[in-house]
Design brief:
18% strand, 4-stranded antiparallel beta sheet, single chain, 4 helices, 56% helix, rod-shaped, alpha+beta
Length: 165
């Protein structure tokens, strides 16, 4: 220990000069670090602001609201589709119009049978019989593919064709 004190006293100028150089280097490194930190902060703020001045938190909240609106709209649309599906099942989806000549050489092909059915085979049948002197129109309800009234052979054929279409 006796040797260290005289050594420090003899090299005191070099030791202070070395500490001064180390402090200058540390100040330069501190200055570079502060500049890098400042650049990083400005980039972070710019990135965090987004394109329209909103922060990420605000973007996330806005997106959450939009997602909730989309989900509500989706639920409403699904309900509307369900209602339309119910209505569509009641719509006439099977229709056949059969024109024929009811009486040879009288009236031409102006007689017809019109059958309109939904998916449950419910609907109606219109049968028009026409000749030169008269025209009669008959309406028959069709329930589950059958009628209460008796059917002519042409009506039976067209009803079966409509059910199978």
């Amino acid at each position: 220990m006796d040797n260290i004190i005289p050594f420090i006293e003899s090299s005191q100028n070099e030791f202070i000069f070395g500490l001064l150089i180390a402090c200058i280097i540390l100040f330069i490194l501190l200055f570079i670090t502060m500049i890098n930190l400042s650049l990083f902060r400005s980039k972070y703020k710019k990135l965090n602001k987004g394109t329209n001045g909103l922060t990420y938190d605000e973007h996330i909240l806005n997106n959450k609201k939009e997602i909730e609106n989309i989900r509500q709209t989706q639920t409403n649309e699904i309900n509307r589709i369900d209602v339309l599906d119910i209505k569509l099942k009641k719509a006439y989806s099977k229709t056949i119009l059969h024109k024929y000549n009811a009486f040879e050489k009288q009236g031409g092909k102006l007689s017809f049978i019109l059958v309109m059915l939904d998916d449950n085979r419910d609907g109606y049948m219109l049968h028009n019989i026409h000749n030169n002197d008269f025209s009669y129109l008959y309406a028959k309800n069709v329930t589950r593919g059958t009628t209460v009234e008796t059917l002519t052979p042409e009506e039976k054929e067209i009803l079966l064709e409509t059910i199978n279409s």
